[in-house]
Amino acid sequence: MTSAPLPLVDLRHVNVTLDGHHALKDVSWSLSPGEHWAFVGANGSGKSTLLRVIRGQQWIDPDGGERAYGFDGTPRGAMTAAAHIGFVAPEQQERYVRLDLPIDGRSVIASGFDDTLYVHGTLSAERSAAVEAIVERLDIGAFAKKRVRSLSFGQLRRLLIARALVRKPRILVLDEFTNGLDGAARRDILAFLGSLAPDVQLILASHRFDDFVPAITHHATMRGGRIVERDAGRPQAPVRSARTPRAERASARGPQTPAIVEIRHADVFRGATHVLHSIDWSIRAGEHTAVTGANGSGKSTFASVVAGTLAPVYGGEVLRYGESGPFDVWHIKENIAHVSEEWQVAFDVNHSVEDIVLSGFASSVGLFHEPDATQRERAATLIADLGLEPLRERPFMQLSFGERRKVLIARSLVRPPALFILDEVWNGLDASFRTLLEAQLQQLAGGGTTLLLIAHHEDDLPSLVERRFALDAGRLHRTR
Length: 480
Known about the structure:
It is a single chain. The chain is of the alpha/beta class. The protein has 2 domains: 9-232, 3-Layer(aba) Sandwich (Rossmann fold); 285-311 and 327-478, P-loop containing nucleotide triphosphate hydrolases (Rossmann fold, 3-Layer(aba) Sandwich), CATH 3.40.50.300. It contains 14 helices and 19 strands. The longest helix has 16 residues, at 431-446. It is globular, with a radius of gyration of 23 Å. The protein starts with 8 loop residues before the first strand and ends with a strand.
């Protein structure tokens, strides 16, 4: 008789407590050879924590179960996991952006050999060849030589996927891995994952059900830190509720109405990189607008110019309500709210969720004023309406990527702005919150707020969008 092969990963009754919060509760799960798994669940359900446990980089509670790996036929501990498991997560990307490392894309990829931030020493010829092979296979040579600080979020995400694959792992763990990828890049990555499946076992977590490639053999649903359901095959997307009817505009507008923002003849650089070229554009009250474009086309830079956090070089001009600058930054913040990947990375204070939401009244990074009764009531109502009450007293930095995104959206809504810029904010959000957010946007639009939406996915755009623009290599043109 021969014994059954050991699972590659074996978790038994695992518990994880983070900052007093039970992130995982009595989780038992195993990965056998040939299996590919998908994990689904709402923000904060425990998916990301579980993936870190699987990868071996998250401590489990001292009395919180057992974890073993059977890559060589003998049960071994978590110290052996990283050598066999590639890993990509939003928090990993945030770390690279926050550190603002002076390294290029190829160095990011090469750091995957030893799972470090930096490459220590000179790469061997074999490792150099492996980096070039993965660059070619993922077709990322156009930006792999660029510095990390000059890359778009989508470009950096593709580099991190290459980093996870460069040493040919047995298992690839990907958490919300298509965040920030444009349509073409996303299709390429999904096709690439499908081609890997015969040789690399996939463990995927996403809120977009079409991210789960046909190779998936099993799926599990998480809720409240537990696996509450598991079954064979790919998970089925929930039936999407009917979209909210289009809101009526709060007031009429016409060509004579001063634009909220008007950009004239603007060229914009980030460092030495010429990102935007000769931009002429404006947005008036009620002109709900979407801007699309490939990774690296300049969308986030464009949004930052509109928001007032970046300025064009000499010769370009930005007018606000018909007036030229200089502008008081705090006055701009009173009229324009901006939520983006970059802003979330920069927002690293660890105040409570309630205090973060209340800080929106002063547009401050953290709460440094005493809110009055009306402000507290508004924040409490918004927290309840957006389903954030269970998080109200939790420290902001202890939340999951998607939960922090929700809190920053709530923060921007406490004081309805004249212009609300949402730059790829749907990344990492669960379906129920998307429905709540769309209802909030419809309500805002009905009350006079104008929306500027940056997105890669058509399903992310609310029905009230009436104007479409596309950025192509830093040049803007209208598509509808």
